[in-house]
């Protein structure tokens, strides 16, 4: 079976990272083409992807000529190839896990929206605002509850798609030194995720890339500091 993943720039393509991690953790063999999605070349490069994938975005997985063009669909496909082991076995737990996946896929309610994945690699980072610290606490409280319920080390016990989907979020938030004082299970979970070999490899590659700068990163309201 010929399997090819069209991925994205390591320090800019968090959605490709999710799909890539799921395939790697599922043990799927695939060829990879890294598509440069940095401006200005991103426009021509993604137009080329649009020639065989309707969203004209990465990631895209092509299997024997058939196209799977959404990161969540690719992750679900990886889970099926892995015999379902990347989702909990119990139906209710599996539904809960998919709730986490859907929340992340729909934007995680905009939590720390100005803290992009790209900013995790900036040499100088701004401090989190009061609002961002509160949003981190909101997310961490939820994660702490999942981990307490499962007994860890991951959200549903064994490593699963929700953990992998949240890796880029972990990367962007932990790089800005949030306060984990009240969330020890979440802190241990983030360390476990970041130490996984495939995550560490991607991060090492991402750190070698030229920074992708966004002015909006510094556009913080004065009364929200």
Automatic annotation (TrEMBL):
PROSITE patterns: GLUTAREDOXIN_2, GST_CTER, GST_NTER. Residues 90-212 form the GST C-terminal domain. The keyword Transmembrane does not apply. One of its GO terms (molecular function) is glutathione transferase activity. One of its GO terms (biological process) is glutathione metabolic process. Keywords: Transferase. The lineage of its organism: Bacteria, Pseudomonadati, Pseudomonadota, Gammaproteobacteria, Lysobacterales. It holds the Pfam family GST_C_2. It comes from Luteibacter yeojuensis. Residues 3-86 form the GST N-terminal domain. InterPro entries: Glutathione-S-Trfase_C-like (IPR010987), Glutathione-S-Trfase_C_sf (IPR036282), Glutathione_S-Trfase (IPR040079), Glutathione_S-Trfase_N (IPR004045), Thioredoxin-like_sf (IPR036249). This is Glutathione S-transferase family protein.
